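Data card: per-record layout.
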Amino acid sequence: MSIRRSPTQVGDLEESLATLSVLEENLKKTDQITQKMATLLTTVFDARLGKLEKNIKPMYNTTRNLTLISQSK
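The structure for this 73-residue chain is written out next.
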């Protein structure tokens, strides 16, 4: 017992499979981009944030001390 499909149904199925294939490729590319962004954020961004903190912290402490001195006068 075989199921007969009309040419329209076969064409629609082939079109749907082609669309699905394109979507799967796009999903793979998106996953790769997401992975690269996550790596970038965890390595480069963390390092830069650490350097910024190292440079800003002394200025923050000095400003805080000056504020305390000015408020106590």
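Known properties of this structure: The helical segments are 7-72. The chain has a mean pLDDT of 89.

See the next section for split statistics.
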